[in-house]
Amino acid sequence: MPGKRDETRPAYEMRKERIACVVMLILCIPIFVIYISFFSQAFFVDGKPSLSNFRFLYETIVMGQYTVPAMGPAFRNTVLFTAVVTVTEVIISCMAGYALSRMQFTGRSVLQKMLLLLRLFPGVLLLISILYVLMYIKLLNTLAGVVLVAIALRLPGSTFIIRNFFNDIPKDLENSALVDGCNRLTAFFQVIIHLVKPGIASISMFSFMSAWSNYLLFNTLILSGRTPVMATYLRTLSLNDQMIADYGVFSAMALIYMLPVLVFFVISQKSLMKGGFSGGKGI
Amino acid sequence: MRKNNAQAYLFLSPFLILVTLLYILPAILTVVMAFTGLDSSFEWEFEGIKNFRRVFRDPNTPKIIINTIIYVATCISVTMVVDLFFAIMTTHFIKTESTASFFKGVLMIPMITPAVVYSVLWIWLLSSNSGGFLNKIFMGITGSQTPVNWIANYPMQVVIIAKIMTSIAFGTINFSSAIKAIPENQFKAARVDGAKEWEIVKSIIIPNLRFHILFIALWETLGLLTDYTTILLITDGGPGIASEVWALSAYHKAFISAKYGYGAAISLLLIAVVLVFMIAISMVSAHMERREADAR
Amino acid sequence: MNTRKLVALVMALCLCLVSFTAMAETVTLKIAHNYDFVTIPDAVIAAADRLEERYAAEGKDIQIEFEKDYQRIDWGEYGKNLIFAYKNGDAPDIFSVSDVPAMVDVGMLMDISDLNTDAFVDGVFDCYTVDGKAYAMPFDLPVRVIYYNKLSLVEFGWTMEEAEALPAKVAAGEFTWEQFVQLCDDIQNAGVCTWGMAHRPGAGSDFLDVLQTLGGRYYDENSTLVFDEDAMLRFFQFIYDAANTLEITPHDLAQQGWPSINTMVGDGTCFAYYGPIYSSTYVAGAVNKDPQQFSEDVAFMMFPVSEFNEKPFVIAAPQGMGINSATKYPEICHDLLAELAAGSADLLANHADVIFTLSSVKAANEMEAITTNPIVADVGYMAEHAISVPSINGINTLNSEMLNAIVQLELGQITPEQAVENVKIQMELNIDEDEIIFE
Fold it and tell me: By the CB < 8 Å criterion, does B78 face chain A?
């Protein structure tokens, strides 16, 4: 087991910890076994080690009667979508969170209450009418439209979190910046944003994860096959009544799809565990 | 502090525009739509409460309600127990920080797996032929010669287990940080009294966590009532309507059968239920905030 | 240079420019298709080259290019997406159609009644005709049939001649549905096959053919949907018995998915199957056989006579394409379809050959691609018995509700009576009163 031994702790506690570790390990084994057996299929063809399952990376492949297009455009769209959503969501929620936390204005308390309600309200239930709204503003069937919806549906939650982070910063800090001759905007960008870094890290992580794996929005708001993303690309190959890709190819694709998430996960796991996590859904 | 409306609303404007356009407006539209016969011919024809009458006349409705209750209730109760168990294991018993976060990391794997991949993982795991992962194990243990079609025979159980796996991490980590926040002297006092571990859990950890438990339970319930992606991708509500839940039926009516008005009506009924939970959550979290403020 | 000369020069330049742009006029058409049979849109794209030549001969210089959008999603979703895209103003110019009544309802399909229908096999336009106007062009003429495994019959004790003569006996009305079901049961009991009869795992009109075999009708002379309660009960009783009493159909068939069913039918694990003839491309593919090898194992027959049905029949189920009523290039799209129907029928013949069916165009059926196809050759006679079903509002709802009932019946969760009741209520709830007749 990794980790330092805490010499000050009594022996009986250490023994309990060891037992607990064994229990946890046994409980975690199924997850390991399932994930490893699933993804290891990517490296085998007919039982022999091979990398040919990864052919889709550079060429179109034919599976049965279906020609699987190369993954390039789907991957590109997913990267673009995730980047735009994450950055924009963070900026907008920081601005709104700051205003709600720090500024005095007419309608403040109404907006505060609205935020409390909205962050709990499940936006997916509105998908039917969201589709109509997008149609009227001519953004249905475009990546930009899905970007807006993805941001909007997460915005109340993120704003709520970041507002709480702003609330926790002592007023003095900002005031001293203001006194030092900064105006609101520079104070916002230089001092405050710096102080809510953990909050920003937290919402950007969740924004990234949800944008990267979003399927439902693309399934309902994109009408043609001309704007593929990884989620819809993989779904096409694994419809309920007909799994097109064999599991070898599918797990190879899934591995490519999950790689950025895994990297991101390993990097951010620590902060994900701490305050960030509870913030993720907004306690 | 002086009021500065122009500046404040400048900061708020992107937020307000997006929320108005894609939250408030759709919410109003949903209410209106629920009273129309809007379908693929795109005519906003007002039909009064016809859609709602339809929902209650539909012989599938009781089954879908029962499914939803079973799904939410089972998921929530199992998740809570499992969350508490893992939180106590990784916080109270495993005090070495890096070991604990390793285990928590493992628990988070299902959560971070994209839904499209996660569902196929389950379909592969439960594959109905004799080469399926679970079937190999099952046939190996029982010596049975006939493979089991797990998803067809146990659709509700499958989606429930799959869903629970993805939600463990959230509660576990929340409870874990809540346990860390319990003052150490409470444990010390209990140990001095010679309390067993089970008694410590029962008389210290759980009482301290009661509002967290309530909050997470309500929060997860809200999620379970409205998030249907896992079911959509694994069973699509089938076979028949064996694993159809309320939110998914709204999706099916609107996006598969193109009955937008009907779908909106089903959504609206769910929203009414959701509102109750939203109020409950607000009350609990207001209460928690007050407690925290008092503690400081 | 005086002013007049300058003006003249400028005008000449402009003229040059105009004629230059006119020369290089490029038209980009968006073409959409769903699922695997891409020979349908590809035929249109190939026809465009020839149309360009014809235009050139007429002195028009038009380059036609295509933006392809070939998808693989649920057909219902595909149709719904197209309708939304039309409302959104970015629907493709020419596309494979699904749910024609709904598309006509929103007005997204161009009326193409003026195509030369004489070139087509009689009745193929019926399913795309609403109020006497044709809204899409059929690209093929697949029939829905019963598949059966000849080798299994031989193993069961029939001679190969007898096995091959079965379709003729069925066509002559000498072999009944009841006898066929019995045969499925006997073959399974004899241990030749694991299962007697299979069907598609999803919703589809295949089931309506069995309903019709059992004396049911699902539309009237005005193309209105009909709910025939007695026949529906017989049909559900059959489905229930097949899975639970005779046990010739696996009771979880609907959850097994296409690949497993295709393999089962292809390798003889299952004796019989009913569905469109083009499914045999998948069935043959699932067991890695070419059409020739496949036709040596599996044969096709019509839906036979039964106690309730006096005439053997097959249903024609064409696939086709329509034109966006809002397209910027209605003439070109129209000319493309006309080209396929007249000069370029070979492209349709090629498509029909690839998916093992007859073509919708008479000329194509004379072509070698079709006449030498081993599978099509065997079923050519069925064209005479083929029934064309009109475009029926609400048929998709009926199909999906029937599937729901079938799944539950096969799993033994409901009785046939309950199934009829459930479907009936669903039809009452989901279909407008004036669009359905209960009898």
Answer: no
